[in-house]
Amino acid sequence: MTAILEKEHGFDHSAAEAFAGKVGDLLDAGAVAVMMSIGHRTGLFETMSGMPPSTSGEIAAAAALSERYVREWLAAMVTGRVVTYDPERRTYRLPPEHAACLTRNAPLGNLAVYAQHIAIMGAVQDRVQACFETGQGTSYGEYPCFHQIMSEDSGQTVTAGLFTSILPLAEGIEARLSEGIDVLDAGCGRASALIAMAERFPRSRFTGYDLCQDAIAFAAETVREKGLGNIHLEVRDLTGFDEEKRYAFITSFDAVHDQRDPLELLRSLRRALRPGGVYLMQDIGGSARLENNLDFPMASLLYAVSCVHCTPISLGQGGQGLGTMWGWETAEQMLGEAGFREVRRHTLAHDPMNVWFVAGR
Ligand SMILES: C[S@@+](CC[C@H](N)C(=O)[O-])C[C@H]1O[C@@H](n2cnc3c(N)ncnc32)[C@H](O)[C@@H]1O
To answer: Which residue in 70, 188, 318, 344 has its CB near the most CB atoms, within 10 A?
Structure first.
């Protein structure tokens, strides 16, 4: 690690050549990631996972897409070693071992969901470059499809594990939810976790607040389709939030670090808990110290997301810009400063990028 951070003596030609090779690999990886994002959005991975070795024409027809574009995409996938190619027959195949982490409901989780973050970074490059020059921030509306991507992301890390590994972190909470309590999800986005809880626990009452109108509108449509009567969703800026002793259970899923004032939000969430209430908080699990994050899962991706999204979003609200990698240490310290008691920290096998805190009022 010291060598990575400090080596700066003389000029080592072989090291320079090796590094240039690494940069080439990085460029290739970035390009493959953007192509993966397209593969995810067009459904090409799902199409291919159900097919025997097939020509570009057969794959394009099965996916109802243009053959010329599909063929070029396939070439990027073959050279990226994602798809295999038989030059005799001109057929392509997505091996089942690769489909296992690139398709919806894949057994290893769908990593292609995260490739969309890479594609968005390119889309907002000009805007973020301007922020480098002005020091100003951005707003949610400037990120195309943000809530759709976030909802797919948390669909895997939160909603998929909600009843098997997440709610059990808060001892006794499922029994209380079954009896009927008031629940708040702060910064709920498209609210898939809240909706899943509302379906499972019909005697409890669920509230979801989020800053963004489009996310709440999407969530409200889902609630309407499911015919749920125990959930209230509202477009609401949580800055200055104050609802004294109203909820027995409060959750926030990846929604604290990019707030204008995370500590003030935590204070107000504690005040909003009834005596005996429980706060369950998911946030990014990296360390506050850069040197501890060199081997953290997808650390470069998280710092990059921080640079183009979480930091400018917070700065854009007049906030501190703590960034995605504010660190579990900062989160834990703030929970203490906010007055939470019996703060317990957990990591979950299915969600290596995040940390989970359970805290009492
Ligand atoms: C990273 S997203 C997480 C969304 C959702 N919890 C999920 O897991 O899919 C953070 C969410 O916090 C919301 N948010 C950020 N600042 C907010 C504020 N001041 N008031 C209310 N919501 C806010 C954003 O609109 C966004 O939906």
So the answer is: 188
